[in-house]
Structures are given as structure tokens and as C-alpha cells.
Write a structure and sequence with these properties.
Structural class: mainly beta
Number of strands: 27
Largest sheet: 6 strands, antiparallel
Strand content: 35-45%
Number of helices: 4
Length: about 400
């Protein structure tokens, strides 16, 4: 059957369905789709990757099965043998966890899948062609042969009709334990969110209990939970590593409506922003940045509450000459038009500088309210964040009044 090889570096911008892989550190396997939606299966030994010539159509359910029998890596799409390649033994990795819908790069997830994953199964043997065909219509837990050597089974977004509860004590990374339950199409929770989305413009439901001091919550009615280093509160944007990447000279706009507290960062000592901001107690409102490794942009306040905008190329940082008032709402807007960086505070231009092409980072995801540090998420913003907007073009000053 047709098939061809690709180098591991070509995973940039791809989407991972299932992985036990951590960047260039360790790993054993990855299954996913490339930018053209070919199916990719990788093991950590030459020839590394086998890729199908078949393209997966959008907005349709598909069965993807990848096997290794000790000699050949094989890919099946919708029960059909789509590609194979000879492959030898690989090293054993007992440190990297298995992830559904992404892989790891250091301690950050990357290559996030965009779509639905219904079921995922793992066997400690290679399925044959007849078993792959049976898998398309059978639950592996109750099938006579498919249940043999089955070591992992996850129901994530179960298709309607298969309602037997799954009790496998598996915890999905970053999510709550399912405890034998899974979501079914038409379940009350999904209906609730569908109705909320259809109601367009409805306010976000209140968060109860509050994530911070109740007295502070009452001080700003309806503003939601306050961000702070103590609470460690930040928002992770799934799929943003590639979708919100603006490398080279790509234009973009970052806009945030926020209400900073008097003190930013853990320390109240005055300090600068930008490349050394990780040591100066700054508060980040929006970032695609991994301190000391890679990144593309940061937007936030230094310890003196001076807004700053950073790109990963000279002049690196633009810092406002004056601080904003504490405990009041402000509009921050940072733009890059392919040649000039501009920083606006409350619709007023406070800094601008010429800037060239920067490194393209499709690994680091976007965070709201913090940024990635050397060993943890750091530089949490202290205050409230009302709205965040990202555009793939540079707004003009005339457009700013209509932002928020």
C-alpha cells in the first residue's frame, strides 16, 4: 500500500491524537494528523514516521488504528490498511505520560488536536486486520478477542448507543476523574452549554465558590474571580500554540481589558519589564512565552504598573513611561504591522518602535494571566481581566474605540 516517510521536525503545526512523547527528551509513540490531515504514526527509532497518502475529511467520524508487530508499523483508516513500513526495536521510556489530544514539550503541552475524540484503546499486542474491522462496530471491553491484552480504554466523547459505563481508573491530564461516567450526545450537560451558546451575549455564570478572598470578590461585583500569584489562577488556551502563532513578520493585535491591583507580582520592589521581567515581579495579562527557551509575545505590567509589550526580537520590549492607576479598568492594546510595534493604553499611543522578523514558536501555548517560567507557570497578573481579544492583523488607532 502507498506510504511515505517524514522527518520528526515536520511535526510543527500538526495535531496529535495520542502520544507518549516529550519533545526531544524521551518518548515511544505519537499518532496524529499533519497540516494536510494525513495520518501520521511515529515510533522513536528510524525510519521514525510512516504517513498515509489518504487525507482525513473534516467534520466526519473516522477510525484510526496504528499497530506494531515487532517488524512493521501499520496504519488503518476506517478498517482499511492505508500504509506500513519496516521498523526495529526502540528504547523504553518509563517517564513520559500518555496524553490524549496533545503531546508534551518540556512541561508544556503542544500540537493540540482540534475536534472530537470519542474512544481510545491500547493493547499490549498487535491487532490483526480482522480485529481492526471488528473494532469499528464493537466495544473492546465486551468483545471476545478485542478484550484480550487490552490495557487502556478511555471514553471521552462517546457516540450515542454505547452506554455501558467504563470503570478503568484513568485520569485524563488536567481534567477531573470520570469515575465510570462519560458524556453522551444529548446529555444534560451538553444541552446546557448548547443553550448557553445559543443565547449569544449571556453573561458568564458566576464561579462558586470564589477562588480567592470573598471580601475582595465583593469589592468588584460581577467581575469574576481575581487573578493573583497566591491563587495561581490563569487560563490555558487549547490549540493556541499554532493557531495564535505570529512568527516572522506576521501582523497581529493583542487587546486586553483589565483592572490591575496596586502590587504586581510577588514582590513589591520596583523593577523593569521585558526579557528580564521574570525576575522583577511583573504581572502578565497575555503571553505566548516560555522564559529562557522560546516565545513570541508578552503583554503585561511591570512592578511599577507600567504597561509593556514584548516580541522575541530587537528592541525586545516597549515600556510605557508612566504607570496606570490601580483598581481601575484600563484598555491595553499591542499591535505589530510587520514593521512597527505599537503599545496603546486607554486608546492612547504610549510607545512605538521598529521591529523585524522574529522566531516562529508553534510549541508554546497562549496563557491569560501568567506565562511559562523555567520550572513553573509564573508572573501571575494581580487583578481582574474582563476581555481578551487576538486578531491576525494590526488595528489602526481609529479602530480602538470600538474594541471593548
Amino acid at each position: 500500500p502507498p506510504g511515505h516517510q517524514q522527518g520528526p521536525a515536520q511535526w510543527h503545526g500538526h495535531q496529535v491524537l495520542l502520544s507518549k512523547f516529550n519533545g526531544c527528551v524521551s518518548g515511544e509513540y505519537r499518532i496524529g494528523l499533519d497540516a494536510q490531515r494525513h495520518v501520521i504514526f511515529q515510533r522513536e527509532v528510524a525510519p521514525w514516521i510512516v504517513t498515509t497518502t489518504d487525507v482525513i475529511p473534516l467534520r466526519e467520524w473516522h477510525s484510526i488504528v496504528c499497530t506494531y508487530d515487532g517488524q512493521f508499523m501499520r496504519i488503518y483508516i476506517d478498517c482499511r490498511h492505508a500504509a506500513h513500513i519496516a521498523c526495529g526495536p526502540q528504547k523504553t521510556d518509563l517517564t513520559s505520560p500518555a496524553l490524549l489530544g496533545a503531546d508534551l514539550c518540556g512541561y508544556a503541552t503542544a500540537h493540540h488536536f482540534e475536534g472530537y475524540i470519542s474512544e481510545c484503546s491500547l493493547w499490549q499486542r498487535s491487532l490483526d486486520a480482522s480485529e481492526v474491522k471488528a473494532l469499528a462496530t464493537s466495544n473492546p471491553l465486551s468483545h471476545k478477542t478485542l478484550s484480550k491484552d487490552l490495557i487502556g480504554y478511555w471514553c471521552v466523547y462517546q457516540r450515542e448507543g454505547l452506554r455501558a459505563p467504563v470503570k478503568n481508573a484513568v485520569r485524563l491530564v488536567g481534567e477531573e476523574q470520570f469515575h465510570g461516567q462519560y458524556l453522551v450526545e444529548g446529555a444534560p450537560l451538553l444541552d446546557r452549554w448548547r443553550s448557553w451558546l445559543a443565547a449569544g451575549g449571556e453573561a458568564l455564570p458566576p464561579i462558586q465558590p470564589p477562588l480567592a478572598d470573598p471580601a475582595e470578590m465583593c469589592a468588584v461585583s460581577g467581575a469574576g474571580p481575581p487573578f493573583s500569584p497566591e491563587a495561581g489562577l490563569h487560563t490555558f488556551i487549547c490549540g493556541s500554540a499554532s493557531v495564535l502563532s505570529f512568527g516572522n513578520c506576521a501582523p497581529f493585535t493583542l487587546a486586553v481589558l483589565c483592572r490591575p491591583s496596586a502590587q504586581q507580582g510577588i514582590s513589591a520592589e520596583a523593577g523593569g519589564a521585558g526579557a528580564n521581567g521574570g525576575e522583577c515581579g511583573c504581572g502578565i495579562v497575555l503571553s505566548k512565552f516560555h522564559y529562557g527557551l522560546r516565545g513570541e509575545y508578552r503583554l503585561g505590567f511591570d512592578a511599577r504598573r507600567r504597561p509593556f509589550f514584548h516580541r522575541e526580537i530587537e528592541p525586545w520590549d516597549m515600556v510605557s513611561t508612566s504607570a496606570v492607576t490601580a483598581d481601575e479598568w484600563h484598555e491595553l492594546c499591542a499591535t505589530y504591522d510587520g514593521a512597527v510595534m505599537r503599545l496603546y493604553v486607554d486608546r492612547r499611543l504610549v510607545a512605538q518602535a521598529r521591529s523585524g522578523a522574529q522566531f516562529t514558536d508553534q510549541v508554546t501555548p497562549v496563557l491569560i494571566g501568567a506565562e511559562y517560567g523555567k520550572n513553573c507557570v509564573q508572573n501571575h497578573f494581580r487583578g481582574y481581566i474582563g476581555e481578551v481579544r487576538v486578531l491576525d492583523r494590526a488595528l489602526s488607532s481609529d479602530e480602538l474605540p470600538s474594541l471593548f
